[in-house]
Amino acid sequence: MFKRLLSLFGRKPVDLDGPQYGALPYTIVDGHLVVLLVTSRGRGKWIFPKGRLMEGKTPWETAAIEAWEEAGVEGEIETTPIGRYYLPVTPERPRPVEVEIFPMLVTGQREDWKESGQRHRHWAVLPEARRLITHEGLADVAVALGQREAKAGRVSEGLPSRTLPGLPQGAKA
Question: What is the pTM of this model?
Fold first, then answer.
């Protein structure tokens, strides 16, 4: 048994966690970008849906499936990531993990979804999302999407002056 333990310590660690792929679910309401956040299962932090590459799927297909499972939304997923961030080192994760994020224009939302009992979701305008997100670099990805949409003339960069109507059914900003 002692020899077996020694042999385990000499092995190169296997990176089981990364890279990961996530969706940045969003919609545009009255000229304002609104993003969908979900809570992580472990610590309850506000994040975007993400996970490891699924066998036989592309990174963006994986991201879309994660959005469906973790947030109950579907939509038009882009095949080019808007950005990336790194999950920090924790006692459970000895190395940082890169996460690529793909924008997903939400076209439908369910009230019951696979992980609804494990997560909360929240639609937020960009300034609120920036306050809620604590993972370093993750808010920057949402800001990059906002800047891209503003440059294309699809959203304004100002704050909404009232509650935003027109979110997917059951959504609240």
Answer: 0.82
